[in-house]
């Protein structure tokens, strides 16, 4: 019966979340309820809760997590600077006469926005408002148009600087140290957010390449689904600014943020501050900065940051109680007893995360599931950067999988009424398959994630 309590606890929190209760309070409330009941029946040592204040203090004083509000601020400020609008016009002029050219423009601009904002919601909403009406007007299939926008927007999950990678890197760093101590290594190595940023570059570009190939194939096989733009269409697209003038600002910001990390000149947190200042300067240059804009940016940043930290506090309470019921040891013993060893353990974890992505957000999976399984998997000898990128690509699908894929919700909120929800769901399916194919490629060739960090840091 004792063995079933950790799994019952996890199942309960999933049910509470599905009922619509706030994530942070669902995690903390479920954990405290089980801790109280366990103490009452003599199966939980309530003195473990004395460690809670130091855990919460550690969350609030964690310097790595300072990057979260800074990257959020940078992303929201860039959204207000209307960088995407001019970029999309320029890219449409460049690719417009090619079949599927408008879709290619969306993918390229989405990739640049992902590499300069790191916020999925901002990219999906921006691209949905700017490009979806145009794509539909030019004769694009609703399913292809919406699928392309949702999938491209989700690139902010994997292409650095990504808030998801910041959160995942912090969790994995702690898990890696735990796993090494369990293996008897008392001067443990570390894995940083910067390692994950560098490791994510090649898989992120591989995803972009696969999206482009898919779109070109669809445009070739079904020309009516992704027609080329006419001269009249191109002439109606507003200003005729040069491509370089539109590309330069976001590229400078990307080089400043990622370049400083790759060169070893700055930590991700320091690079995030560079990005935040760069976004402000870009807004000033584009004459988009005002007191009203700054107030909106600060309010959005505060809301997102408070949400993330409250979820992290709730997850800390949950993981403490879960360990108090010997949940981690139970998972370890199950993984070790599985036929096929490490391969089966990784396969099961990836499958569970993929399925949980249908009902849970990536933040919930990162803070609840990853701390449970990562120490066990890393103790089995897995490379932490490879495991982190595998988890990140897997969690990226959670933005696209119905019924609770956040990218689907974001796009549904700004899509024209004539676009059916079924079209959005149908459109993302091929992109989910592409993401799973990239996940399989990472499993077969781990060097896709580990080669670049080895070259940069060694």
Class by SSE composition: mainly alpha
Low-confidence stretches: none
Number of helices: 21
Helix content: over 70%
The pLDDT mean sits at 82
Q: Which shape, going by the Cα principal axes?
A: globular
The value of Rg in angstroms is 22 Å
How far apart the termini lie comes to 49 Å
Strand fraction band? Answer: under 5%
> Would you count the extended β strands for me?
0
What is the H/E string?
Answer: HHHHHHHHHHHHHHHHHHHHH
Characterize the main sheet: none
Description:
The chain has helices at 4-18, 23-40, 52-60, 67-80, 83-95, 101-117, 120-137, 142-153, 163-182, 193-221, 231-235, 243-262, 268-285, 291-324, 327-337, 341-356, 362-379, 384-396, 406-414, 421-444, 447-457. The protein has 458 residues and is mainly alpha-helical. The termini are far apart. The mean pLDDT is 82.
């Amino acid at each position: 019966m004792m063995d079933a309590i950790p799994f019952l606890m996890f199942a309960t929190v999933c049910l509470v979340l599905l009922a619509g209760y706030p994530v942070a309070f669902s995690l903390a409330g479920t954990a405290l309820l089980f801790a109280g009941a366990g103490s009452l029946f003599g199966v939980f040592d309530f003195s473990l809760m004395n460690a809670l204040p130091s855990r919460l203090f550690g969350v609030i004083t964690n310097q790595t997590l300072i990057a979260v509000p800074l990257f959020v601020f940078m992303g929201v400020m860039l959204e207000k600077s209307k960088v995407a609008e001019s970029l999309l016009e320029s890219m449409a002029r460049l690719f417009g006469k090619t079949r599927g050219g408008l879709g290619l423009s969306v993918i390229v601009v989405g990739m640049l926005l992902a590499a300069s904002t790191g916020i999925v919601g901002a990219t999906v909403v921006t691209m949905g408002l700017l490009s979806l009406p145009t794509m539909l007007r030019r004769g694009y299939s609703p399913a292809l148009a919406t699928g392309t926008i949702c999938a491209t927007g989700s690139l902010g999950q994997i292409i650095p600087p990504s808030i998801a990678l910041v959160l995942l890197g912090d969790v994995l760093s702690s898990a890696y140290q735990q796993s090494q101590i369990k293996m008897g290594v008392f001067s443990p190595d570390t894995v940083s957010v910067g390692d994950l940023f560098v490791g994510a570059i090649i898989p992120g570009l591989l995803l972009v390449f696969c999206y482009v190939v898919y779109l070109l194939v669809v445009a070739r096989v079904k020309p009516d689904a992704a027609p080329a733009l006419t001269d009249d269409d191109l002439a109606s697209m507003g200003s005729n600014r040069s491509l370089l003038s539109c590309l330069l600002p976001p590229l400078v910001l990307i080089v400043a943020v990622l370049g400083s990390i790759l060169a070893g000149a700055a930590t991700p947190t320091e690079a995030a501050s560079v990005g935040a200042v760069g976004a402000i300067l870009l807004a000033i240059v584009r004459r988009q900065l005002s007191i009203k804009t700054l107030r909106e940016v600060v309010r959005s940043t505060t809301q997102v940051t408070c949400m993330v930290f409250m979820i992290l506090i709730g997850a800390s309470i949950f993981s403490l109680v879960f360990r108090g019921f010997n949940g981690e040891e139970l998972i370890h013993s199950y993984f070790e007893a599985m036929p096929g060893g490490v391969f089966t353990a990784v396969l099961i974890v990836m499958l569970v995360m993929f399925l949980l992505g249908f009902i849970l957000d990536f933040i919930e999976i990162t803070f609840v599931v990853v701390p449970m399984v990562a120490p066990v998997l890393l103790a089995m000898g897995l490379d932490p950067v490879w495991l982190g990128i595998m988890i990140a690509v897997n969690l990226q699908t959670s933005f696209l999988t119905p019924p609770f894929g956040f990218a689907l919700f974001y796009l549904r909120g700004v899509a024209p009424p004539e676009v059916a929800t079924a079209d959005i769901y149908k459109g993302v399916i091929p992109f989910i398959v592409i993401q799973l194919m990239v996940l399989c490629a990472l499993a077969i060739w781990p060097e896709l994630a580990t080669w670049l960090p080895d070259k940069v840091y060694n």
